[in-house]
Design goal:
It is a single chain. By secondary structure, the protein is α+β, with helices and mostly antiparallel strands. Helix content is 37%, strand content 13%. Strand 6 and strand 7 form a beta hairpin. The N terminus is likely disordered.
Length: 625
């Protein structure tokens, strides 16, 4: 790292517990934040890295363009009869982001259990308030194409209008960042080695100039009046739906484009204008947030030695392009197909030819002289191309983790046991993606928890369940006076298909069924002064299973459950004998989608001669599933 990137001595670097500081205190002056980094060199490094990212930005935009298909001002140069990118991304996204996560915080210190419960309740309330599920969904979708980013911070009261309608001044926020608006140190081999990273965004110019936390704003101009950004790119993702008019054209209010740049070593967050009007930053903030900074990155398909992941779409991209090229060709062949009738010369004299021209499809015409006209079939879809298209479609599903099984489109096996095994295998292929997403979301939530815990002003209206009563209370600074890092919290966003709570539920059910209930029936619990608390059991299942309705299915036993003597459970005798009849019925179906594809390929390749009547009949039936 260049020498001018190193920070000079700061007040926090001084050891005040010994006398070593005496020699330097006489001349000590706090270093201004602007002088703790080289701004000119930083802009040059950002420009260089952004230029290196341009090829990835182009790739990212092209993939998203294919996902969008025929959309807006999309200049897509390829027709997509079967958009496998959209199908795969939507299926993957559904399995990775279900809904807004409910936060479960556990601690091994029993004295901190109530604080952990309160913080979990406060975080769940905050995530709902800031629409956190939308930020996660956008980041996961972007990561499937290339890279997903979420930016976390604490909204200054003065910036209330700059963070969007869902952000309140003085509250933590989490917002997704488009990959095409993100820049980072491309000279680093790992994310931990980044010397900077940041994102581009727009702000209201009038609000910016009136905001006291910004400086050097006198000469700033709106995006419509200034030159293009020195970090501009022709691959802006928003151009898909815009008319290429450029940023700031015909805006209702004047806007300006800014960059927030995080410097990990200096622990500074620098805000600078994106245009070339000035070389000065408009704000330099001494970062007091999470150690890793405000940006959290999600990537699938990491490439060794590279900081830009490949993305899941890369696995099916080539076959997606080839498949749609083939389908376009097959479609063109089908449109060119024609049936041409021809007849002997004498037919033109007796009216046969004219009758053929005038006849509609299915009409029958009569001929004179015993010379029937003939028909010539020309063109039509190539059978080999049809077989190849079906085969490539199967390859895409295979490379994507068996899309038909993941989406529940159709049964893929002949028996229930085989189908269960295939579904389990497909789930295992998604398990790594789910684990990566869960770790990413947990890191973001931990950052929000730190901001929430250390904010001296935030107060949230919460409620606490005490017995059968729901008691409201206000969670304020006095409830979180301890050091956040003294707590041994483990955060599980368990409503996002998190594995850990599911494993805990499985262990709980197994323990209850295989140990507690047999012990209770044998009288072992009662002999030791214990009993099985069904209400507590349901409460745990409701919490970990994200199903609070379970808390409502038990009522007090002080009165009769139902009236009438015959409804007393003790008076209802169990039947002496029970009879169970198992009926096995074979119902003809179309088989699996794969079997139908195989029959179609066999028929195409052989001209239909090798397909027997049973196989032909199965094609007319719906697939199993």
């Amino acid at each position: 790292m260049p020498e001018d990137f190193f920070s000079p001595l700061r007040e926090s670097d001084v050891n005040w517990e010994d006398n070593a500081h005496i020699g330097i205190l006489e001349d000590f002056q706090p270093i201004p934040l602007e002088e703790r980094y080289n701004h000119t060199r930083l802009r040059e490094s950002i420009r260089s890295s952004y230029d290196q990212l341009s090829s990835f930005h182009e790739q990212y935009k092209l993939r998203v363009t294919h996902y969008a298909g025929d959309y807006g001002d999309n200049d897509l140069d390829q027709v997509l009869p079967l958009n496998m990118i959209r199908m795969a991304v939507d299926i993957w996204s559904r399995d990775l982001t279900a809904k807004n996560p409910a936060v479960l915080i556990t601690t091994e210190d029993l004295s901190l259990k109530q604080s952990a419960d309160d913080l979990g309740t406060a975080l769940t309330h905050l995530l709902s308030e800031i629409k956190f599920e939308q930020a996660v969904e956008d980041a996961v979708q972007s990561a499937l194409f290339q890279m997903g980013i979420i930016k976390v911070g604490l909204t200054a009261p003065e910036n209330n209008d700059m963070r969007g309608i869902w952000a309140d001044g003085g509250r933590p926020y989490a917002e997704s960042v488009l990959f095409s608006d993100f820049v980072f140190d491309m000279n680093a081999k790992r994310q931990e080695e980044w010397t900077f990273c940041g994102n581009r965004y727009t702000a209201n110019l009038a609000d910016l100039k009136e905001n006291p936390i910004y400086s050097n704003t006198e000469n700033l101009q709106s995006a419509s009046k200034s030159e293009n950004s020195v970090l501009d790119s022709n691959e802006r993702l928003e151009d898909i739906s815009r008319n290429q008019g450029g940023l700031g054209k015909e805006e209702y209010v004047d806007i300006i484009e800014l960059w927030d740049i995080w410097l990990p070593r200096e622990r500074l967050l620098v805000t600078m204008p994106a245009n070339s009007e000035t070389e000065k930053p408009i704000r330099v903030l001494d970062w007091q947030g999470p150690e890793g900074g405000p940006y959290f990155v999600l990537g699938f398909g990491k490439v060794p030695g590279q900081t830009v992941p490949a993305g899941m779409v890369a696995h099916i991209w080539d076959n997606h392009v080839v498949l749609n090229d083939l389908l376009v060709k097959i479609n063109a062949q089908g449109l060119r197909q024609k049936n041409i009738g021809f007849s002997p010369p004498q037919s033109s004299h007796d009216g046969t030819t004219k009758a053929m021209i005038d006849a509609a499809d299915g009409d029958v015409i009569s001929t004179v002289g015993g010379l029937p006209p003939n028909e010539l079939r020309m063109g039509g879809p190539d059978q080999v191309n049809m077989s190849l298209a079906i085969w490539i479609k199967g390859l895409i599903s295979y490379a994507a983790g068996n899309l038909d099984v993941l989406a529940g489109l159709s049964q893929q096996a002949d028996t229930a046991t085989q189908e269960k095994l295939m579904a389990g295998a497909s789930s295992e292929m998604m398990a790594k993606l789910q684990g990566t997403t869960e770790t990413f979301v947990t890191d973001v939530i931990e950052a929000l928890a730190l901001h929430l815990w250390t904010d001296p002003f935030v107060k949230l209206p919460l409620s606490r369940q005490v017995g059968e009563f729901n008691i409201p209370y206000e969670w304020g600074p006095e409830d979180r006076e301890s050091n956040f890092f003294e707590y041994n919290f483990k955060i599980h966003p368990h409503s996002m298909r998190s594995k850990s709570p599911a494993q805990k539920l499985a262990m709980l059910d197994e323990t209850v069924q295989n140990f507690i209930l047999p012990a209770a029936q044998a009288g072992m619990l009662q002999s030791q002064g214990h009993d099985f608390d069904i209400k507590a059991y349901l409460k745990i299942k409701a919490t970990y299973g994200d199903m609070p309705e379970l808390n409502d299915i038990l009522i007090s036993s002080t009165g009769p459950l139902l009236s009438g003597p015959n409804l007393n459970p003790e008076r209802i005798p169990a039947p002496a004998n029970t009879t169970r009849t198992n009926i096995r019925q074979n119902v003809p179906t179309g088989g699996t989608q794969q079997s139908q594809d195989a029959i179609m390929m066999q028929g195409f390749m052989s001209g239909g001669g090798s397909v027997n009547p049973d196989q032909a009949a199965s094609l007319a039936r719906p697939t199993v599933g």
